[in-house]
Target: E2F/DP family winged-helix DNA-binding domain-containing protein
Amino acid sequence: MQTKEYTFSHVIKKIITSIKSKPGEPIKVNIIAGEENCEKRRLYDLFNVLCSLGLCNKSIGKMYMWVGEENMLRTIQFEYEKFETEAIQNEFWEFFKLPESPPIGQLTMMILVIFLFFGVHEMSLKQICLVLAQKRSKMTVLLRRLYLAAFFLEQLGLISHSLKIGSYQLNLDADTIVKATFDDMKKRMLFPINSIEMQLQRIDNSFIAELKSMRYMILLQKMRLEKIPVTSAMDEEQESPNIENIVPQNHVSIY
Model:
């Protein structure tokens, strides 16, 4: 017997395949809802996600148009670069804060940005939720929304379930996106003038990897402080005997 989740997953994939095959044609949610016997609310969630990722544009009325994967990659890099730029001026955890009821599209993009920011190819939704909620006591409601956001990303093939329950793997070429972002930020002189990035002739992959590793250790520290188990092999490899002493004052201090 097929579950509701399986059925909805099948419908979503069918819709995406259909609209991809007709670029430039207006997409009418009301018609799709009738044809697929699907709740409009869920379809609007889907198109909120597609628009946030740059796969679709909202047209007149309640219609949408498919834009394509190339625009999606540009959109993801743009949002990630904007996030890195904003992070330079703020306290480490401040720039992750969301409005009280963030739209599903924003949550979807934030999942991808957090993967890129911490430089890991696998994360649990609890880790991502902690980054956004800041405190364990605020995670419950947000975590439910993140599972929905992750569901849409999985249907689009941008993430996939890992072998660990509640964990996902990133299916984007993260290294290329991050390297291009740092190169562009250096070219546009977005780093502080006295930062290591501006003093280096070029920002290489080893420098970026070291930065990302330090960021991830800060996340592990946060998890322990909030009493969230750190159990994966990757987390154990990242741990350091002196991790408790890492107290970031701002983003610049860990570059």
Summary: The first helix runs from residue 4 to 20.
